[in-house]
User: Which sequence fits this backbone?
């Protein structure tokens, strides 16, 4: 109750810094605890999930440095621990940010945060289950039969993460478009007229973000981006329709009030005219 009362009034810079320090400490402790939990209990299960695309090719990963295997496993567990502790981290960030927000802005963030996590996880799962496996299959099958694949665990995990994060961020496109349309920065007409430029940009971004040189992984990244772009156009259209409807309701309310005032004025004039006649 004391903390809530403190947030209800204006906070000094020192109090904000102490609040930020609390958020950082709790979030860091949550990430470290989750990472230790994953490393102690689920390290092998996580490793099996990561190397599952290679099992059908009977390929074993190797490490070429004394610390490579250890640090790569820590990197994997840290990534998993960060995802597991994300609700706690977001809650701490939420408690810090909402101090200066209006009630309607708080409601918007409550809706946006779960959507952000859902879209990011959906993009990452799509990258792992579809794009990454197809890219691995293409790169291994097209290699010369005289070559023996000796994949380093560090390079393989980095290759995997370079797929997951870009795809997760790519799937945030509809959410970003929704807010840009809501703030009237872009419109459905603008998105539609610039579709061909967007397609070109998508191919450039896919070529830059996908770690493999093959065209298949790039196309598999462009395809969902095109779909999400069309979804973004639909969202922009919905935002504009809702805005025009609200403006129409406001204008109708104003016109109705004008009619009421006009009728009241007419009735007053009629009443005055009747009184004048009766006096005469």
Assistant:
């Amino acid at each position: 109750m004391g903390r809530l009362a403190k947030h209800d009034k204006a906070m000094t810079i020192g109090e904000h810094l102490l609040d930020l320090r609390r958020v950082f400490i709790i979030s860091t402790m949550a990430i470290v605890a989750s990472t230790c939990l994953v490393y102690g209990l689920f390290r092998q299960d996580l490793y099996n999930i990561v190397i599952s695309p290679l099992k059908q090719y009977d390929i074993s990963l190797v490490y070429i440095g004394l610390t490579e295997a250890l640090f790569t496993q820590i990197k994997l567990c840290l990534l998993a621990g960060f995802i597991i502790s994300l609700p706690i981290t977001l809650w701490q960030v939420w408690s810090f940010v909402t101090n200066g927000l209006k009630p309607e802005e708080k409601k918007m963030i409550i809706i946006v945060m779960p959507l952000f996590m859902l879209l990011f996880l959906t993009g990452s799962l799509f990258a792992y289950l579809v794009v990454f496996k197809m890219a691995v299959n293409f790169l291994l099958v097209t290699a010369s039969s005289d070559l023996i694949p000796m994949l380093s665990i560090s390079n393989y995990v980095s290759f995997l993460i370079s797929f997951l994060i870009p795809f997760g961020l790519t799937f945030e496109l509809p959410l970003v478009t929704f807010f840009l349309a809501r703030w009237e920065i872009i419109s459905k007409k603008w998105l539609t007229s610039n579709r061909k430029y967007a397609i070109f940009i998508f191919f450039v971004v896919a070529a830059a973000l996908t770690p493999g040189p093959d065209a298949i992984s790039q196309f598999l990244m462009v395809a969902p981006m095109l779909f999400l772009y069309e979804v973004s156009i639909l969202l922009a259209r919905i935002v504009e329709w809702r805005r025009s409807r609200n403006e129409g309701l406001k204008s109708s309310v104003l016109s109705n009030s004008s009619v009421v005032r006009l009728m009241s004025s007419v009735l007053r004039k009629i009443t005055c005219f009747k009184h004048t006649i009766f006096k005469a």
